[in-house]
């Protein structure tokens, strides 16, 4: 069966009304290392478009800007775990520069296809950056990072791995952790189902979007995972469109 035939078959199996009472984590098509490179690149472009339209990059920028303003910081390092094609990091760096703040950005991802897309994107924008291929669950996180962020990454992981990763992020980040991800809800599922069809032509995005919501968490569930990681004093807030933002700041 060809990649395109497999994608069409997968897209027909997406439920319009799944059971969302409990988390249903499934492997997403984009996580397949054997995925055709051209199809993967188009999926990354589609996901980037969804992120732009939903304006979720701003959810990560707001706590970063707030921290920098409160502490009168003009230059700070930011590490993005599961950076994908780098659209978040590059947007953050450009936004920060417009506000007089210099971000030193590093992105980590397991996919060489995503990392090459990230490097090309940074080169086009003529921005200094570093992108590393690594498994953030098993390898040591890059040291000397002031802020660690992640976007739409946690829902890919098992609960036990999330707890361990949050602990390692807190050990590594000098100052701040900011993570944003999907909320598992009926409204969120329907928004994702409709939005991915309207915004992207990629069949990967059409399949992986709803799977991501089904594998995401409720606010209560992510709070419980944070407590298990020893980060009970974090803040978790709900945002449009059916996202949560997790922030944790190191005590002075």
Automatic annotation (TrEMBL):
Transmembrane segments: none
Presence of keyword Transferase: yes
Keywords, sorted A to Z: Methyltransferase, S-adenosyl-L-methionine, Transferase
GO biological-process terms attached to the record: methylation
Gene3D superfamilies, per the entry: Vaccinia Virus protein VP39
Annotated GO MF terms: methyltransferase activity
UniProt entry tagged with the keyword Transport: no
Signal peptide region: none
Domain Methyltransferase residue range list: 78-172
InterPro entries: Methyltransf_25, SAM-dependent_MTases_sf
UniProt cross-references to CDD domains, sorted A to Z: AdoMet_MTases (cd02440)
PANTHER family per the UniProt record, alphabetical: METHYLTRANSFERASE, UBIQUINONE BIOSYNTHESIS O-METHYLTRANSFERASE, MITOCHONDRIAL
Protein name (Swiss-Prot/TrEMBL): Methyltransferase domain-containing protein
Organism of derivation: Gimesia aquarii
Lineage: Bacteria, Pseudomonadati, Planctomycetota, Planctomycetia, Planctomycetales
């Amino acid at each position: 069966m060809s990649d395109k035939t497999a994608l069409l078959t997968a897209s027909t199996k997406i439920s319009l009304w799944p059971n969302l009472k409990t988390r249903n984590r499934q492997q997403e098509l984009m996580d397949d290392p054997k995925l055709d490179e051209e199809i993967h690149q188009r999926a990354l472009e589609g996901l980037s478009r969804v992120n732009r339209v939903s304006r979720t990059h701003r959810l990560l920028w707001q706590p970063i800007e707030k921290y920098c303003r409160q502490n009168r910081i003009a230059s700070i390092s930011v590490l993005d775990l599961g950076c994908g094609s780098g659209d978040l990091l590059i947007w953050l760096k450009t936004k920060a520069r417009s506000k007089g703040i210099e971000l030193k950005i590093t992105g980590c991802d397991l996919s060489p296809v995503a990392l090459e897309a990230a490097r090309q994107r940074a080169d086009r924008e003529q921005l200094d950056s570093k992108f590393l291929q690594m498994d953030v669950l098993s390898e040591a996180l890059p040291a000397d990072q002031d802020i660690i962020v992640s976007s739409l990454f946690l829902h890919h992981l098992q609960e036990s791995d999330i707890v361990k990763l949050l602990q390692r992020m807190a050990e590594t980040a000098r100052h701040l952790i900011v993570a944003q991800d999907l909320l598992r809800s009926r409204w969120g599922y329907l928004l994702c189902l409709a939005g991915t069809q309207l915004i992207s032509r990629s069949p990967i995005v059409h399949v992986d979007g709803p799977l991501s919501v089904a594998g995401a968490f409720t606010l209560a569930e992510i709070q419980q995972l944070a407590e298990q990681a020893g980060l009970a004093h974090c803040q978790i807030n709900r945002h449009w469109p059916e996202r949560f933002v997790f922030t944790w700041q190191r005590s002075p």
